[in-house]
Amino acid sequence: MNASSPTAPSSAPATQSVRAGYALFILTLINLVNYLDRYIIAVALPEIQKDFGINDAQSGLLGTVFIVVFMLASPLGGFLGDRVPRRLLVAGGVLLWSLATGASGLASTFTALLLARAVIGIGEAGYGAVAPSIISDLYPREQRTRMLSYFYIAIPVGSAMGYGLGGWLTQTYSWHAAFFAGGVPGLVLGTMAFFMPEPQRGAMDGPEAAVKLPFMEGLKGLGRNAAFWATTAGYTLMTFSIGGLAFWMPTYLVRERQLWLEHPGRVGLVFGAITAVAGLTGTVAGGWLGDKMDRKRVGGGLWLSGIGLLLAAPCMYLAVNIKDPMLTFAAIGVAQFLIFLNSGPINAAIVNCVPPAFRAFAMGLNVLCIHMLGDAISPTLIGQIADMASLHTAIAINAVPVLLGGFALLLGAKLFREAAPQARA
């Protein structure tokens, strides 16, 4: 008895670590499939345009309708996420969007495809707002940027898989087959999500953390939280730009740059590979550097994000103005690295500058803002500019929002120093 008793307390942290790791693993895989489903349509778009006879502005609606529904449903998902078991929202949302992805492959009209994309947005809102709050309750502040970066690694990897898988299946079989394949993994992961651990809200923020907060009181506090709004503004400007570019870049490379005209699916494979490598390395580097910068100065990770966007803007502009294809892809890769550097630090700043009892709603409101003023309108706007001028012009202009987003995040880093102590209380 005496010999074994000292080991009993040490088993609790080990068990907690395993439970936290399992939840992070499932949430990351779900996020990967999420972005895989989103970007299959980007590389399949030329074939969809041929089948349905739609122009660029109409094609942009396929991105816009999804984002509009997703952003409008996200605050509701966040509101529920602060009050009900979050794993149930995650599981239900994943199952719904996976079924809708499979249904996209059955669409025989443009209207039917639009409807399927709208349902995908509802499903994604069930998990998107609550997943970061779950992770913040599984890991302490000094590890959150890194752990959230692992979660957001799924963005470049999933996007790359969407481009690659969508390009290969569209070229080999049809765009219908690409959607059928994209819906299967989510059905498995949605079922597994029912068995994730449900951490206590504020578990890693100390006994003084506010784990219960009246909604109106929390809403008033969030309205006065300048750091949250500055960070959200920078995030919105970045999302506007990269959302539109992700939707249109494969089409631009085929149409404007005349790359692999006989095998357009190859563009998706190459662009997807660049996205995977640049995004993976950028996200990991951002998580490690963000934690390191946060230890040196309050808001250091957010400052890193601002610098990353300021450097990414000229790279984005050069990518569409360099004639050599290899240099174009190199500029795209550098820009993506600098943008994905921000995934962990930005989201860690958001959850760290609001009370634990209001994090899911804050994330949901952030999702609403970044999409309502970001990639909900950018695919259609780029398509309209392309119809009026050229796709080259439309994409080149998108370097400006990234530049402005960098300045907004630097302001957010300064304001964060005041908001972070209040969030702990």
UniProtKB/TrEMBL annotation:
Which top-level group of life is the source organism from?
Bacteria
Q: Which UniProt keywords apply?
A: Membrane, Transmembrane, Transmembrane helix, Transport
**TM region(s), chain numbering:** 21-41, 61-81, 88-108, 114-135, 147-169, 175-195, 226-249, 269-289, 301-320, 326-344, 394-416
Any single GO molecular-function term of the entry would be: transmembrane transporter activity
Record's subcellular location: Membrane
Q: Report domain Major facilitator superfamily (MFS) profile positions.
A: 23-424
Tell me the InterPro entries matching this sequence.
MFS, MFS_dom, MFS_spinster-like, MFS_trans_sf
Recorded hits in PROSITE patterns, A to Z, give: MFS (PS50850)
Topology relative to the lipid bilayer, per the entry, is: Multi-pass membrane protein
- What's one GO-annotated cellular component? membrane
PANTHER family annotated for this entry? PROTEIN SPINSTER, SPINSTER
What is the name of this protein? MFS transporter
Q: What's the source species for this entry? A: Corallococcus llansteffanensis
